[in-house]
TrEMBL record:
Pfam families: HTH_IclR (PF09339), IclR_C (PF01614). Keywords: DNA-binding, Transcription, Transcription regulation. Residues 51-233 form the IclR-ED domain. It comes from Streptomyces globisporus. This is Transcriptional regulator, IclR family. InterPro entries: GAF-like_dom_sf, HTH_MetabolicPath_Reg, Tscrpt_reg_IclR_C, Tscrpt_reg_IclR_N, WH-like_DNA-bd_sf, WH_DNA-bd_sf. SUPFAM superfamilies: GAF domain-like, Winged helix' DNA-binding domain. PANTHER family: HELIX-TURN-HELIX TRANSCRIPTIONAL REGULATOR, ICLR FAMILY, HTH-TYPE TRANSCRIPTIONAL REPRESSOR ALLR.
């Protein structure tokens, strides 16, 4: 990490450390949970705990402003599930923060989240918020393709699904991106930004999915109201 002042993604750190990617992910999540690292805009950076290791005796790092990552970490602990936040920016899906823990790991990004928005809940939630032209442009650049036997099979079917999504209901995805995992996402309105937040749970705990995402919606709505934003529900 020390060689990357502006942070680095998990795959790069794994390659440079000579570690298998699953091992690197496990270590990165553990270090993030302990505060030695933090994840922002898809890269890992040193966290406050690491900065304190190099501080002079008796000197602690200055508190940093509360970030999206801080809020996600709080919601992860309250809900007991990984929490994700993504935005749609410059025609692409950008996963800006993830909060998980060793006992509640996030879904491993085995296929680029950016290129497979049709297959995961947070991507579907973002694409559903686009106008028809922007949506078609996105799918021209990132075609629909099945990732598992549960994935949507073609573009026409996927577009029809988006058209039938009801305002006020979370977007649910069952094993379309990763086998053994179910996810739910909610749209978030913060000015002109198109954003979404999501949670994931193992398939054998699917009964927790809807209560957990409703809890997340309440938590997010409460926070955003304090900043004169609103959640789109």
């Amino acid at each position: 990490m020390g060689a990357h002042r502006d942070g680095a993604p998990a795959k790069q750190l794994a390659r440079e450390a000579g570690l298998p990617l699953p091992t690197a992910y496990h270590l990165l999540r553990t270090l993030t949970h302990e505060g030695y690292l933090r994840r922002e805009n898809g890269v890992f950076l040193f966290g406050a705990a690491a900065e304190n290791l190099t501080a002079a005796p008796g000197v602690r790092s200055r508190p940093r402003p509360i970030s999206v990552a801080d809020s996600l970490g709080h919601w992860r602990d309250v809900i007991g599930a990984p929490v994700y936040c993504a935005v749609y920016c410059d025609g692409e899906i950008d996963l800006i923060a993830v909060a998980d823990a060793p006992d509640t790991p996030a879904v491993e990004e085995w296929a680029s989240f950016r290129e497979t928005g049709h297959a995961h809940a947070i991507g579907q939630c973002l694409l559903a918020q686009l106008d028809e032209r922007a949506r078609e442009d996105h799918l021209d650049r990132h075609p629909v393709r099945p990732l598992t036997r549960y994935s949507v099979r073609d573009r026409a079917t996927f577009l029809e699904r988006l058209r039938t999504l009801r305002r006020g209901e979370p977007v649910i995805e069952r094993q379309e991106y990763a086998l053994g995992t179910v996810c739910a996402a909610i749209p978030v309105t913060a000015g002109a930004t198109i954003a979404a937040m999501a949670i994931s749970v193992p398939l054998d705990r699917e009964d927790r999915l809807l209560p957990a995402v409703e809890q997340l919606r309440g938590e997010v709505a409460s926070l955003l109201r304090s900043f004169v934003f609103s959640i789109s529900i």
